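Incident log, support desk, overnight shift.

02:14 A customer reports that sequence design results differ from what the structure should imply. Their input is reproduced verbatim below. On-call engineer (initials T.W.) acknowledged and began investigating.
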């Protein structure tokens, strides 16, 4: 029996042959009669799962409660559609490190084709865009930088050029909810059955963009604060919507901070231009700071590499090394630093 014959109503929700082996494995252990469904919303202790025909509100219990689900996950439902039996193997997981935690991970969305990084024209933050690109490349999805509120700029071309310079390898576009043709062009970039997620800080215009894409209001919106142009949180949960053209879009709460984490993906540093320069460094383990023969540092000095981009590269490198460092390595490093301080103090006392 073909996939079209087994689950015709779930195919428009992104289901495909990649998920069938996981469903078969679960049927071998839990018994036949299971049905796949997609998580379209998560509330505390409860998931809304669409089986292609209806939405089921199901409790999160047992192993499902211990290993957090993400919106966009495909799950196996019991024959009566009243219980989640297991989670099907994910193609991708977009996640960020929990604030204040080294190892805690907060899932944002799963099984994505694209992630739309919403960068508002009224308070563009290139460093946030670069960090978002690294996060998306690492998860294995395709990033798209979306300059929102583009109507606030007299000429968007310079800003788009700046973003394109930083978003090497990623598509860049400008959109305004007051310019319907830009919204239509963005929706057309997502084929039927493909899934994208909106990612951006509060006030970046995600909810307004979602409403414009859907053609009716489903997400509350609010104005940014006059003083600092920061937005108020209007989206408080993650939810998957089907667009009129058949594409699928996950709306997420504002993510001002994007903590990197060590996932299973990975695509270099996320700075492909700097990675290319680094190949010409004299030393293979060059830290790209004060080492002789550093091609990256030379590019900064010659004006071929933006100093701000270089600083973002160094910051993300330090963060990745911190994440990779084991607790034993950290304790060893801290003990070594403590001994160095004690030795310096002893020399000072002896010489004084």
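02:41 Re-run completed on a clean worker. Output:
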């Amino acid at each position: 029996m073909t996939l079209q014959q087994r689950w015709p109503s779930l195919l428009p929700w992104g289901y495909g042959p990649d998920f069938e082996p996981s469903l078969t494995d679960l049927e071998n252990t839990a018994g036949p009669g299971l049905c796949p469904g997609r998580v379209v919303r998560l509330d505390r202790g409860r998931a809304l799962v669409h089986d292609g025909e209806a939405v089921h509100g199901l409790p999160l219990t047992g192993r499902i409660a211990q290993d957090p689900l993400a919106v966009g996950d495909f799950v196996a439902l019991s024959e009566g559609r009243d219980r989640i039996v297991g989670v099907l193997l994910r193609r991708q997981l977009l996640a960020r490190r929990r604030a204040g935690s080294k190892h805690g991970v907060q899932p944002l969305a799963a099984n994505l084709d694209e992630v739309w990084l919403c960068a508002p024209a009224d308070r563009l933050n290139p460093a946030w865009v670069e960090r978002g690109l690294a996060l998306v490349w690492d998860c294995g999805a395709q990033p798209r930088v979306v300059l929102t509120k583009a109507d606030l700029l007299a000429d968007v071309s310079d800003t788009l050029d700046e973003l394109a310079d930083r978003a090497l390898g990623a598509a860049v576009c400008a959109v305004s909810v007051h310019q319907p043709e830009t919204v239509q062009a963005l929706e057309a970039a997502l084929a039927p059955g493909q899934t994208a997620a909106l990612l951006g800080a509060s006030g970046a215009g995600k909810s307004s963009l979602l409403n414009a894409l859907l053609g009716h209001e489903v997400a509350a919106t609010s104005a940014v604060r006059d003083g600092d142009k920061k937005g108020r949180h209007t989206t408080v949960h993650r939810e998957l919507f089907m667009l009129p053209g058949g594409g699928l879009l996950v709306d997420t709460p504002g993510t001002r901070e994007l903590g990197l984490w060590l996932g299973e993906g990975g695509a270099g540093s996320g700075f492909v231009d700097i990675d290319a320069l680094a190949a010409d460094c004299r030393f293979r383990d060059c830290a790209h700071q004060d080492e002789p023969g550093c091609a990256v540092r030379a590019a900064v000095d010659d004006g071929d590499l933006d100093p701000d981009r270089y600083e973002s590269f160094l910051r993300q490198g330090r963060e990745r090394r911190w994440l990779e460092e084991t607790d034993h390595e950290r304790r060893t490093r801290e003990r070594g630093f403590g001994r160095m301080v004690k030795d310096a103090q002893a020399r000072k006392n002896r010489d004084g």
